[in-house]
User: Fold this.
Amino acid sequence: EVQLVESGGGLVRPGGSLTLSCAASGFTFSKFPMSWIRQAPGKGFEWVSSISTQGGTTTYGDSVKGRFTISRDNSKDTLYLHMTNLVPEDTAVYFCERLKTWPNQYDYRGQGTQVTVSP
Assistant:
C-alpha cells in the first residue's frame, strides 16, 4: 500500500523558516518524481514544486521561487520542502504527491500538514 505521511508543519512568524518532510512507503521511492502542493483556506490546490527521481531537476511555482527548496533523500525514502522568508500568504495545508507524469500529474497524495504564518 502506497503511503505518504507529511510532517513538520506548525506556526511560524513572517520571515521565518520551516522544513516539511514526507515519509514514503509501499513503493520504490527512487523510481518516482515527487511534488508538493498546497491548499490555502477557502481556495483550491496550488502546485508548489516538483523534483525528479534522483533530484537532478527541480521546478517551482512563481509564488515560492527563490524562497522554497525541494529535495529528497532516496536512502531514507523521504521528500523535503525547506521554506524560508515565509509570508502570511504561505498559510496552507501542504501535501506531498507521488507523480505519474512529470511535472505535476499525481497518482497518490498524502493527508497534509498545516503551515500557519502569523505574527
In short: The mean pLDDT is 97. The two ends are 40 Å apart (CA to CA). Residues 25 and 42 are 30 Å apart (CA to CA). The chain is about 0% helix and 55% strand.
